Amino acid sequence: MKDTATTVMERCELLGNISEEPGILVRPYGSQAMREANNIVSGWMRAAGMTTRQDEIGNLIGRYEGSGDRTLILGSHLDTVRDAGKYDGILGVMVALACIQQLHNRGEQLPFSIELVAFADEEGLRFGTTFLGSSAYAGAFDKSRLALEDQNGVTLSQAVRTFGGDPDALEGDGRGNGDLLGYCEVHMEQGPVLEQRDLPLGVVSAINGQSRVRVGFVGKAGHAGTVPMEGRQDALCAAAEFVLEVESAARAEPGAVATVGEISALPGAVNVIPGEARHSLDLRHPDDAARERLRDHLERRAAEIAASRGCEHEWQLRQETPAVPTDSDLSELLGRAVEESGATVRRLPSGAGHDAAQISALTPVAMLFVRCKEGISHNPAESVRSEDVGVAIDVMSRFLTLLAQGAGSHSETSQEASP
Ligand code: GLV
Ligand code: MN
Ligand code: MN
Q: Which among 123, 126, 382 is the best mutation to test ligand 1's pocket, defined by most ligand atoms within 8 Å of the CB?
């Protein structure tokens, strides 16, 4: 019989072909590709003994009944960035599914139920936000986001409806936490630490906070051949100066990372001075006060740069999430499961955002990282080893058993310094 790690790898491969565009993987929130992915995964969930439903925002939820009243949540996301790899998010859902499939194959019922959630939007590709899925599930959906528009002018409200949900019901669609034991998410590391240490897995200590801003510069469009260089109000030049300011300011703040990943210039013709430039800004730091200081500094600098070039500027703070420590008890249990599997326990912080950050408002969270090749992620070259996936399945199964036994004694873990 095929081993479970091979099945997980094959499923990641299959889902890696469910895309909005041929030739690359791009699966944004509310897309046809997302619908197809949810359909396929719900079939796998049912085959693993789960009942399934889709909530208002479009999260796919599978439930494996236990004998007691409590519930453990497992999960990660099925949406992707543009030109994505096959494992970011998807791996976590597939590993959890494999563990539940094993329970089902053995006819085993745990003393708690498991709810496996495939979140509908973690990346925020379509609306420039993150965590639409997990924030709704956690009961923390921000209604003001419903007016956000995608690049085609479709509002989030319309997108929710098209995907089968009711935008007016989102605020009240959060899951209550009365029965919850906690949440555990498996995710590829997306960084180089585990590979450098020659370790298959790591236990996450904290998730860095982040700010996402939509920045605009508005100048004056004009003829590229006739308007002298002196006195131009070139919006793209203002944005360019600001982008380099983002780089130098982040370098000057230890622990910070800041990225302008998407930019557009309008009207967008070879012989027209850009009258408008709009871009994203993604800012992260393990310390919230440092991130806010950097954010405020950059807002001031955007205003100064715009003024010095005769341009206006716009600053729309689209989203902020604070840094989130993981739960010490659940993380220690996860550490024990790693030890029992024969691997060394390494704790490390996450520079990437994760659904676990939102779910921490609902219930204690823990995360298990799986080593990836050269730390590459948000790139089609993402790669994880089948052997490491096998260890992750083993560790998660042991974690479920320890939780079922009500185990909670402490294990020795070594601490990785923050990057
Ligand atoms: C999600 O992958 C993020 O950290 O942007
Ligand atoms: Mn990602
Ligand atoms: Mn992810």
A: 123
Ligand at minimal distance from the CA of 210 is: 1
Indicate which atom in ligand 1 lies nearest the CA of residue 89. Answer: 2
Whether the Cβ atoms of residue 365 and residue 182 lie closer than 8 Å to each other: yes
Give strand ranges (E) for 324-394. 324-325, 346-350, 365-370
Burial 235-272 (b: 16+ CB within 10 A, else e): bbbbbbbbbebbeebbeebebbebebeeeebbeeeeee
Q: Pick from 82, 354, 355, 376 the residue to mutate for probing ligand 1's pocket: most ligand atoms within 8 Å of its CB.
A: 354
Give the number of the ligand closest to the Cα of residue 350: 1
Ligand 1, residue 122: give the atom nearest the CA: 1
Ligand 2 mean position to 109 CA, how many Å? 33
Dist. CA 265 → ligand 1 center (Å): 25
Mutate which of 91, 122, 372 for ligand 1 pocket (most atoms within 8 A of beta carbon): 122
Question: What's the 63 CA to ligand 1 centre distance in angstroms?
Answer: 26
The tokens 């565009």 sit on which residue? 21
Q: Which residues contact 20 (CB under 8 A, 6 or more apart)?
A: 26, 27, 28, 31, 32, 33
Phi, psi of 81 (to 5 degrees): -80, -175
Q: Give the whole-angstrom CA distance, residue 133 versus residue 139.
A: 10
Ligand 1 centre distance from Cα of residue 89 (Å): 10
> Tell me, what amino acid is at 153?
G
CA 412 – CA 345 distance, rounded (Å): 8
In order along its 419 residues, the chain shows pLDDT tens digits of 579 999 999 999 999 999 999 999 999 999 999 999 999 999 999 999 999 999 999 999 999 999 999 999 999 999 999 999 999 999 999 999 999 999 999 999 999 999 999 999 999 999 988 899 999 999 999 999 999 999 999 999 999 999 999 999 999 999 999 999 999 999 999 999 999 999 999 999 999 999 999 999 999 999 999 999 999 999 999 999 999 999 999 999 998 999 999 999 999 999 999 999 999 999 999 899 999 999 999 999 999 999 999 999 999 999 898 999 999 999 999 999 999 999 999 999 899 999 999 999 999 999 999 999 999 999 999 999 999 999 999 999 999 999 999 843 333 333 443 33
